[in-house]
Structure formats: structure tokens, C-alpha cells
Amino acid sequence: MRRVTRNSAVTAFVLITVPANNSGNVVNTLMDEYSEFVTEAAAVYGEADVIAKVELPSIDQLHRLVMDKIQNIPHVRVTRTFIIVPRHHQIR
């Protein structure tokens, strides 16, 4: 495995809860409107309905993205944000 080498200071996964049958709309909104920061988004089964991987230059920008933008997307009920620990993040 190799370590992540992107220049983003902050990488996080945002888990999003939405009402039934709204996951696709939220995924599309994330990728269409916030593609500068959202590198991946997917509808999933389980505790969350949508998971988005985001990469930003700062914690402050992460805060603004989640609090001011993602939480205001129609149908978004709950978000949970998990910030990656860079030295323990590996990808293939």
C-alpha cells in the first residue's frame, strides 16, 4: 500500500443521513455543486445513506463545507464527519 500524497491539508469522510429514496439526489448535488472539495460520493446501505470523501486546505474550510453547504442540501437530516489521520491513511 502507498500513502496518500495529495496536497490537501484535511481529508475527511462525511456520513449523511437522508429520508428514503433521496440518496441519489444528494450524491448528485455533492458531485455537481461541490466537486472542488468532494472527490467521491456514494449511496450506501447501513447506518448512513450517503458517504462523501472530501479534501480541503483547512479545518475552517471543512467546517464551512459541512455546516454551511452540506447540511443545507435539501433532505439532509444528519451529518457525521470523520477526519482522516494522515500518517495512518493508505490507499492502493
Q: Order the strands across the largest sheet as they lie in space.
A: 3-4-2-5
CATH architecture heading: 2-Layer Sandwich
Number of strands: 6
Number of domains: 1
Major beta-sheet overview? 4 strands, antiparallel
Quick one: CATH superfamily?
A: Lrp/AsnC effector binding domain/regulation of amino acid metabolism (RAM) domain
Instruction: Return the string of H and E elements.
Output: EEHEEHEE
Mean pLDDT figure = 91
Q: What would you report as the Rg, rounded to the nearest angstrom?
A: 13 Å
**CATH-derived topology:** Alpha-Beta Plaits
The unreliable regions are 1-5
Task: For the record, give the distance between the C-alpha atoms at the N and C termini, rounded to a whole number.
Answer: 5 Å
Oligomer: single chain
Given this structure, which CATH class is correct? Alpha Beta
- H/I helix tally: 2
Beta content: 25-35%
Helix coverage percent: 10-25%
Principal-axes geometry comes out as globular
Structural class: alpha+beta
Protein name: Transcription regulator AsnC/Lrp ligand binding domain-containing protein
Domain Transcription regulator AsnC/Lrp ligand binding: 38-84
Pfam family, one: AsnC_trans_reg
Structure description:
With 92 residues, the protein is of the alpha+beta class. It has a single domain, classed as Lrp/AsnC effector binding domain/regulation of amino acid metabolism (RAM) domain (Alpha-Beta Plaits). It is built from two helices and six strands. The chain has helices at 23-33, 59-69; strands at 2-3, 10-17, 38-43, 50-56, 78-83, 90-91. The protein is globular. The chain starts with a strand and ends with a strand. Mean pLDDT is 91; it is low at 1-5. Residues 38-84 form the Transcription regulator AsnC/Lrp ligand binding domain. This is Transcription regulator AsnC/Lrp ligand binding domain-containing protein. It holds the Pfam family AsnC_trans_reg. InterPro entries: Dimeric_a/b-barrel, Tscrpt_reg_AsnC/Lrp_C.
